[in-house]
Each structure stands twice: as C-alpha cells, then as structure tokens.
Amino acid sequence: MKSKLIVVSFIWLVILFVFAAAWKLWWVPSQEEAVEQAAQEAHEEAIRQTGSASKYRTQINFAYDSFSGYSIFRSENFKNNLSQKSLKVNLVDDGANYIERLKGLQSGKYQMAAFTIDALIKASDEIGDLPATIVEIIDESRGCDAMTGYKLAIPDLDALNDPEVKFILIENSPAETLSRVVMSHFGLNNVSEKSFIPVANAEEVYRRYRESKPSDKFVFVLWEPYVTKMLENPNVHDLVNSSRFRGYIVDVIVASRDFLVKDEQAVRDFIEAYLSSVYHYRNTMESLVASDAKEAGTPLNDEQIKRLVKGIWWKNTVENYAHMGVESHSLQHIEDMIANITKVLISTGSISSDPANGQPNILYYNKILSDIKNNNFFPGKENLRTESDVLPSLNDEEWSKLTPVGTLKVPKIVFARGTSKVTSQSEITLNELVEKLKTWPQYYLVIKGDASLRGDIEANKALALERAKSVERYLLNHGISSTRVKAVAVEPTGSTDVMFQLGYLPY
C-alpha cells in the first residue's frame, strides 16, 4: 500500500512539474509576446494616425546600371516628371547582372528594368521563364560599340577566321553581342567559344590592349570612350562598329508581367515621364552625359563626350511608335529585331533554343504606346529620324578602291546545271540574304562569281559573271538598292561558288 502511495505521489509530482514547466516555458512567454505584439500594433497605429498620406501613388523599383545611355533615368527632369505623376522610382544599380535582374522581376523585387534585347533573351533562356515584357525602346547603339585590332595582324573581318585569333571582351555585354553578330553573318568557321577571352570590366580590356603588340592576333571589343583612346594609335583600326549595322544592340524598358497586369497605369505614367525627358534633353545630351559621368566619378573630356553621344541613338516618342508598330514607318519593327537577335544567339551557341518558341511577339507589349498615341501624347514637335538604305553610286575606279570588310556567310547558291538560273531552294537563301543586307545598310556589296578550271576557261568565266549578275538582279528585284551592288567575275580558282563581300569607300 505504501509503495502504491509513493508511485501515485510521484506521478502527481511529474504532472505538476510538467504543468509548471509548460506554464513557465510556454504560457508566460506567449502572454508576454501577446502583450508585446499588442504594444507594437498600438505603436504602429499611432504612427499611422500621426503621419500623412504619401504624395506618391505607386513606388517602382527599377533595376539598371551605370551605362551612359541610361543617364536620363538619373536626371532631375525625369525625377520631376515622375513626381508630377505621383510616382516614386527607386533606381537600383545591379552592376549589369542581367540574370539577377530578371530574377528580381520574377520575384517581385523589381517592377521594371532596363535591358538590352539580347540580354533579355539570354536571361529568359537561362531561368526558363518569361517574367518580363518590353514596353518601350530606350536607345540603339550607333557606333558606341566597336571591334578593334592591329592592322598588321587583323586587316579585315576575314582575317578573324583563324583559330589563333582571340576576342578580348566582357561577357553578357554589347561587346559580346557585336562579336556574335559578326560570327553569325561572316564566314568565320574557325571562331568558337574558345576564341573568347572574357574579362571582368572595360578597364581590363583596355589594359590588355596596352600590353599587346602589333603582331598579336587579338581583337578588343569595347565601347566609348575606350574605342577613341585605342584609335589614337595609328596602328590600330576599327574592324567594325555598331554604326554599320542596325537592330542588334538595342536597350529597352521592360516591365514585370505581374506588375503590368496589376498596375498598367503606373507603367504608362513611367513611360510618359521618360519620353518627356527624352524630348527635354534632345538638344543637350552632351551636357547631361558630361554631368552624369562627372557625378559617377568618371569625368570625360569634350571629344570623348561628343563621340559617346554620337554613338547612341536615343529613341524619341514618334520613333517608339514606329518601332513598336503603332505607326507604319520605315524603322525596323521590334518583332524583327527580336527574331534577328534570337537567330544570332542560337547560331553562335549562346543559347540552345528560342525562349519565345518562335513567337517574338510575346516578348513585347505595344498597347501602352498605342494608348498614349491615341490620346495624342506628344511631348513636343519631334522628327522621325530615318536612315537611307541608298548609298551613293560609285564609278568603276571607286568600286576598285573599296576597302574590304569581310565575306558574308551565305549557303552555297545553286544554279540549274550549265545555266545562270537560280534554283528555288537558293531563292530562299537569297531572301535571307536580302534581310541580312538590310541590317548592314552602310556597306557596299560585291558579288563575286568564281569558275571551274576545267574545259573552256573563258566560257567558264563568262558563266561565272552571268551567275553573279543573275544573283544581283534577284537582290535588286527584292529591294536592295542598285547603287550598293556590283557583280563581277574573279580569276577562276576551280570553285563554282558565288561569294558576297562587303566593303566601304575609304575617305
């Protein structure tokens, strides 16, 4: 009996101990936590009751970087325009980390951002999602980016077709885009990913140039003001720069699709504020870029500023209407830009597949620009600046003095046996060539017909010339200006190919 009493007493002691422990370890802290939470809520309510309503209707976190083309985002006029629309924009410089930038749009960390079109495509492929859409075009590179090299080692783009040639550049930058455009469009079968030597920043590319020799087979792919510095060396030349082609190095404003659905008005207000600032600075971009560079701690001299501003085409309101298809004009449509850039990225191995699955239209949203145009939004009188595809005509002597740029990569043109008639399959190839030539409007084209060494050489040369002229006629009939094309027969090498060499008239 006594032992049972001891057991029962022990059990009750355990139960009391458990209750005491629970009271001390759970109930008391929970009560204290509840009291603290109530006090915190009361404090927060007091803050709300003793504050004022914000002047801003919406806040937008906008991811971008220090590129001079983005100087308008950092301007006082843009801030004032946003304030008038009750928008607060927090600019976040992520050091051009495009993957994290797109992930930020995906997660809601950012609502809007600046991208180059190629970076948007590559980042979308990398994360396997399309969380952002293009709503406006910021600018297009027009000479700001260039590929330079020593004249002795690399006289033209054809000389790049050498496994010993190395490209010194920054990955995921306009410099890489420029290099991939050249890889895709010219006959550079010996150039591969191994040809690229990525470095951390522009200063490192320039340092590599300073340490190189004229015999080094290096290509330095950079932007202003470094290009100007390198070209001060008479032994260095500009192999190609972004003023020679169109629609590949293009900066755009993108919006998170979720945010766009949630608050399209805020995106519209942002775009109107930005385009108004583009108009405001239309005649003073040099001053803005100079002050922006000085503020960033990287002051530029007058010549560097002039070349930098000349190399960037900031798109105004009417040009955005044209690019986005809101108005019908001769400017390249953004859908074609996206398709062309995607093709370059796939053909050069930068991405394995098209993240838009052959539907470039899902990467842009033109409704906002359409709406503001229909509401007669024009910040001022602006001109739609166009580029003529018609080059000055040349005489025979001038044609003979063209400086070669490089030979375009074109699949073999096939003719009906013994004739100059282009086959239907090769007509498809020539149609693609027409589109390619439209993106290189600043160069003349020499169509070179080669001939077999068998049989009657003179007859073979005559056929080679007729085949070159047949191709020339096809291009002219499909919109290529007659002033920029010349068909010739070259001294026979045994091949029966037709080659396409771009060139320019030296000044």
In short:
This protein has 507 residues and is of the alpha/beta class. It folds into three domains: 58-142 and 248-374, D-Maltodextrin-Binding Protein, domain 2 (3-Layer(aba) Sandwich); 149-236, no CATH class; 396-504, 2-Layer Sandwich (60s Ribosomal Protein L30, Chain: A).
In words, what does this structure look like?
The structure is a single chain. By secondary structure, the protein is an alpha/beta fold. It folds into three domains: 58-142 and 248-374, D-Maltodextrin-Binding Protein, domain 2 (3-Layer(aba) Sandwich), CATH 3.40.190.10; 149-236, no CATH class; 396-504, 60s Ribosomal Protein L30, Chain: A, CATH 3.30.1330.60. Helix content is 43%, strand content 18%. It is built from 17 helices and 15 strands. The protein has helices spanning 2-49, 76-84, 98-107, 117-127, 174-185, 202-211, 226-231, 257-262, 264-280, 285-295, 302-310, 317-323, 334-347, 367-374, 396-400, 424-438, 457-477; strands spanning 58-64, 87-93, 112-116, 132-141, 145-150, 166-170, 196-199, 218-223, 236-241, 250-256, 312-314, 403-407, 444-449, 485-489, 498-504. The strands form three sheets. The chain has a six-stranded mixed beta sheet with strand order 2-1-3-10-4-11. Strands 7-6-8-5-9 form a five-stranded mixed beta sheet, with helices on both faces. α3 (98-107) crosses α4 (117-127) and α5 packs across α13 (334-347). The longest helix is centred in the first third of the chain and has 48 residues, at 2-49. The chain starts with a helix and ends with a strand. The relative contact order is 0.11.
